[in-house]
Amino acid sequence: MNRIIQKEQFSEKVVKLVVEAPEVAKARKPGHFVIVRCGSGGERIPLTIADADVAAGTVTLVVQNVGVSTAKICALEVGDSLTDLVGPLGRATDIGRRDGTVVCCGGGVGVAPLLPIIKAFKEAGNRVVSILAARNSQLIILEDEVRRYSDELIVMTDDGSAGAKGLVTDGLRRVLDGGDVAEVVAIGPAIMMKFVALLTKEYGIPTVCSLNTIMVDGTGMCGACRVNVGGRMRFVCVDGPEFDAHQVDFDEMMMRMKAYDAQK
User: How confident is the model at residue 173 (pLDDT cuts 50, 70, 90)?
Assistant: First the structure.
């Protein structure tokens, strides 16, 4: 059992949970995720680790209420416990010094897994430009934390209620037109990552995306998280969650995820 130490409500359907998990906190790296379960018959939910405190033995998770199982997790309070928390899983982000600016694009709750990546790139000596995007100001999360580790922060909202009005690609194009971009990292809804990849391909900028697909066991045994990357079948849980965004078949991935939603 993993006890909840702290809870913060980001919005009506998004919460931050700080959870006891000392072994995971010690082993995790940027890009890693965990699988959690609430209740003995609960569904297995993959969540990327947003932060960790080794001294306190905790990890930070950001959860969006999108169904029955995530609703149960979001309803937990301080002192309650998750039934299971397994990890860290997946491959860590390739962090290092880049010859040029690293641009990190986060959409919605995708900002949570992006935060440790932003922090790690900055601590490795890179110039980091972060772009946060959401439908409106109420859905922008972790802005202060991202700003702390960014040389420049751009906020984009569909309705213009925070930052500039427009999509993440509008902000990204401005940065790309400025030149000296070495790499782009994108985490968010699949449709967002698809259009970020299409844009950066125009400029010939290497781009990494982090996929959060249908996932069951998290060890590569079930095959539920398969995606087509460069014409090859890959498993997000063991081969990812990060891939070359220019090689991902986003249309096929979104079709599979839509079919899953339709069966619920």
Answer: very high
- Minimal CA–CA distance to 186: which of 118, 256, 122, 235? 118
Strand partners, 154: 131
DSSP 8-state class, residue 248? B
d(C-alpha 16, C-alpha 238), whole Å:
25
- AA letter at 153: L
Domain ranges of the chain: 2-89, 101-263
pLDDT tens-digit readout, 116-138: 999 999 999 999 999 999 999 88
The set of long-range contacts for 64-67, using a CB threshold of 8 Å and a minimum separation of 24, is: 64/13, 64/14, 64/108, 64/109, 65/13, 65/14, 65/15, 66/13, 67/264
Closest CA to 50 of 38, 67, 64, 37: 64
64-98 pLDDT, tens digit per residue, is: 888 788 888 889 899 999 988 988 988 989 998 89
Q: Are 109 and 141 in contact (CB under 8 A)?
A: yes
Q: Are 19 and 3 in contact (CB under 8 A)?
A: yes
- Count CB atoms within 10 A of the CB of residue 99: 8
Write down the pTM of the prediction: 0.87
Q: Which CATH architecture has domain 2-89?
A: Beta Barrel (2.40)
Q: What CATH number matches the domain at 101-263, 1.10.390.10, 3.30.1360.120, 1.20.1250.20, 3.40.50.80?
A: 3.40.50.80
